[in-house]
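Backbones bend. Our protein:
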Amino acid sequence: MSLFKSINVSASGLTAERLRMDIISKNIANANTTRTSNGTPYRRQVPVFKQTESTFEQTLENAKNGEQTGNGVEVVGIKEDKTPFKKVYDPGHPDADKDGYVQMPNVDIVTEMINMISSTRAYEANVTAMNTTKSMAMKALEIGK
């Protein structure tokens, strides 16, 4: 794997994890949103990651040369979590039904915070990998002195 390819793979990971953190922040911000533009409570969102695909020719060439085929990661979509909404008894709430229950978003703050920590660690790992690659390149340049 070339140095620039290593940097590109790390950069794709940084971009993906940054988007993941943005979505987690959006989920936390809307944890109490009982009414969206379509009239339902906010529904938790989750990013879907996928390994960046190589062309068949690249994969074959990499296999022939004994190289790895990974090209990084990309976000292929943002899906809504289909778990049911929570029901909370609050008869004074403007969105309460006739029995006094309010449908609340399916966002669990504890789960979101765990996901945020995981995303932060993955982001930091990608930064470390990129810095290591940069350090290797600088050491290689020092050999020529």
Observations:
- The mean pLDDT is 89.
- Helices lie at 3-29, 56-64, 109-143.
- Residues 3-31+45-80+107-143 form one domain.
